[in-house]
């Protein structure tokens, strides 16, 4: 049976964050832990369901909270404001990600030497920044993520394997952005891969994305294929 619990954690300034952690109660030993970094609107049932799905694969899933306890967007305007707070302060964004990593490592069901992270949309940017920081986590996966690097760039040795799962028609990460990412990753000698899905836009894993005129739409085939790619990726890096 999948166990799901709220997990409150604090930063050095005593700000509270509330994540949701999930694991299978049949586990008899510590398992790899995988963070789930949320979209621009904040942690939601979408990310919690992904944490549960990871638990069903044999991991400990942790739907993290980068905005703070109770801070969730009720619409696009609020979501933009919340995201901008971190997007315009990338060191703060990174500190929130590292806080979540350390919180997950301390959980009793987690093998702290085997940590990964996945992120969706803005959450994709968050996990890529985590890798860019030189963090020792094993690997990160970006689903239809935002790809622009921090400025100034940390220029750290990237220790994490990187998998980017991208819709070719994503208006928020254009083909030129993919080229820039490839140049960035090659320049840092990173272990990186990109899967590109045709006829696929932004937010392709989200069944609630129904704005094809804006390039935001659910794509069932790409959703299924990207999840399969993620499972193969983590099986490889954790084995």
TrEMBL record:
GO MF annotations for this entry?
hydrolase activity
Q: Ranges for the Dienelactone hydrolase domain?
A: 18-237
Q: Signal sequence span per UniProt? A: none
What is the name listed in the Swiss-Prot or TrEMBL entry for this protein?
A: Carboxymethylenebutenolidase
């Amino acid at each position: 049976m999948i166990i799901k619990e709220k997990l409150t954690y604090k930063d050095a300034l005593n700000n509270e964050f509330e994540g949701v952690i999930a694991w299978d109660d049949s586990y008899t030993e510590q398992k790899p832990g995988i963070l789930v970094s949320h979209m621009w609107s904040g942690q939601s049932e979408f990310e919690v369901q992904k944490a549960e799905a990871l638990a069903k694969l044999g991991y400990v899933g942790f739907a993290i909270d980068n905005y703070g306890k109770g801070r969730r967007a009720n619409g696009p305007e609020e979501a933009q404001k919340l995201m901008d707070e971190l997007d315009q302060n990338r060191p703060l964004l990174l500190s929130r990600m590292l806080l979540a990593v350390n919180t997950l490592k301390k959980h009793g069901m987690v093998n702290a030497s085997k940590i990964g992270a996945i992120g969706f949309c803005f959450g994709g940017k968050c996990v890529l920044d985590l890798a860019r920081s030189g963090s020792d986590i094993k690997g990160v996966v970006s689903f239809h993520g935002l790809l622009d690097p921090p400025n100034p760039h940390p220029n750290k040795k990237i220790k994490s394997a990187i998998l980017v799962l991208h819709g070719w028609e994503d208006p928020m990460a254009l083909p030129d952005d993919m080229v820039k990412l490839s140049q960035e990753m090659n320049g840092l000698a990173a272990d990186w891969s990109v899967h590109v899905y045709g006829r696929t836009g932004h937010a392709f894993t989200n069944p609630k994305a129904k704005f094809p005129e804006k390039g935001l739409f659910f794509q069932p085939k790409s959703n299924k294929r990207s999840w399969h790619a993620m499972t193969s990726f983590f099986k490889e890096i954790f084995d």
